[in-house]
Amino acid sequence: MSDLKTYEKMIQIKEEEMDQTQKQYNLAVEHFESEATKLYELLKSKENIEGQYESQLSKGASIAYLNNFHHYIDSVQQQESNLQKKVHQARVNMYKKQEAVEEAYRELKKFEKLKDHKVEKQRLLNKQIEASFIDEIAVQQYSRAK
């Protein structure tokens, strides 16, 4: 019976580990979504600015406007590059956390299966003991009847 308690304690520990890894994964997903949203917003802004630039070019634009636009676009492209790196890092981290959740789940299932096998062995052993006890009673009753 102490083996069973050991398995139950290990299952409890594995469930806690799984909860922790699930929380870490959820945080990683939130971080990825946040970084991806920032990138999306930047790209959307860049697209709008480029549309305004095209419109201004068709009307005629000053040299100062063109210089300012190119400096702004260079800045946006640098931000885009940095955000793409952050999004990539966040995605890799999210995938690692997902793998950790899957591993924690496998570990939990392994201990649950071990516990189930132990319970089944104990049930079979109890059944054998009960059958042996019933046989013993039957033998004693038969002996008394003679």
Automatic annotation (TrEMBL):
CC per GO annotation: bacterial-type flagellum; plasma membrane
A Pfam match: FliJ
The entry's keywords: Bacterial flagellum biogenesis, Bacterial flagellum protein export, Cell membrane, Cell projection, Chemotaxis, Cilium, Flagellum, Membrane, Protein transport, Transport
GO biological process assignments: bacterial-type flagellum organization; bacterial-type flagellum-dependent cell motility; chemotaxis; protein transport
Protein topology in the membrane: Peripheral membrane protein
Matching InterPro entries: Flag_assembly_chemotaxis_eff (IPR053716), Flagell_FliJ (IPR012823)
Record flagged with keyword Flavoprotein: no
Listed NCBIfam families: flagell_FliJ
Record-stated family: Belongs to the FliJ family.
Keyword Protein transport annotated: yes
Cellular localisation: Cell membrane
Name of the protein in its database record: Flagellar FliJ protein
